[in-house]
């Protein structure tokens, strides 16, 4: 039984990497990013549909907005085993957004949003120390979010919407063919063998809902709050292996198969309190809670058993997280608005399950932005620098392969966002 367990670890490693879909994407509009996403209690325009749909009652007329954010991640790893530094394979990502909003009358408004609420993109060289844990982890989600908002009174608005989400995942890592050969043919195995490759790819759909509240507490103070439900996604996929010629004897074990997993994306709640300090300056403070503890394990069911094992359960033990932010906008004149913000966020991954596919850590985000309005057009620009606290991995994840990749992981992110809106 021990041999079977070790083989499953070698084959699937931390199959719970699918939970990497839990990495939230909050670059949902340049006007919001420029204020550290502190825009739950005052409107940044059509992107209010994401930040707080109840604010759509504050967005006049019919508007459309399209935007994108260039995200550049600078990651590196310093090994406890060798002391060597290993840079990640840095890549650019472009999460994008589209919003369309319409105010029917003084009471009713509606909108449609298309955006990417969760995502992951980490890549390491195929020869790096942790190659048996992860080499490439890509997670893509696409959300279709129709919303209806209602002004109940001069001071209170509410909103409700539907989240129809598509998820696509692709996870890659190397297989220790030499170690696997020793397990299958003890004591010497088949001699030194070239690493095999493993790729899991899968996709699925899920449905959730979201609600929003906006309250004018006084002439200068506003309160906003939102809630997004968890989304259960049925993921169907395929596990495929690439076996080098010198390891052909492993083909009977490394057999391609299909599989299924149920992935739960977390509930999210946000709140904000905005103060209209003057006719030109608006300041907001707020917070965000995410329900990462709702999934403490991931179960993967295989359509074709591996050494008699048709499923595998991996612990996650992630924690709920909190983020707090402050931001502001200064309307310099009728054309130009200046913005700035700060956000602090803790991370859900405990030390016991931390791994390089999701090298998450507590983070601080500093942002600057500007908006330019001319006739019916509005252009919003923003820059953000996100620094992740360096984090040490010192656990047993990957230890069964002989390469736990324990050491220090560091990450910095650069974000450059642009959104263009038009009012009909």
Automatic annotation (TrEMBL):
UniProt subcellular location: Cell outer membrane
Molecular function (Gene Ontology), one example: long-chain fatty acid transporting porin activity
Pfam families: Toluene_X
Record keyword Disulfide bond present: no
Alphabetized Gene3D superfamilies for the sequence: Outer membrane protein transport protein (OMPP1/FadL/TodX) (2.40.160.60)
Keyword terms, alphabetized: Cell outer membrane, Membrane, Signal, Transmembrane, Transmembrane beta strand
Coiled coil residues, start to end: none
A single cellular component GO annotation: cell outer membrane
Membrane topology per record: Multi-pass membrane protein
Signal sequence bounds: 1-20
Record family assignment: Belongs to the OmpP1/FadL family.
Name of the protein this chain belongs to: Aromatic hydrocarbon degradation protein
Organism for this UniProt entry: Geothermobacter hydrogeniphilus
Source lineage: Bacteria, Pseudomonadati, Thermodesulfobacteriota, Desulfuromonadia, Desulfuromonadales
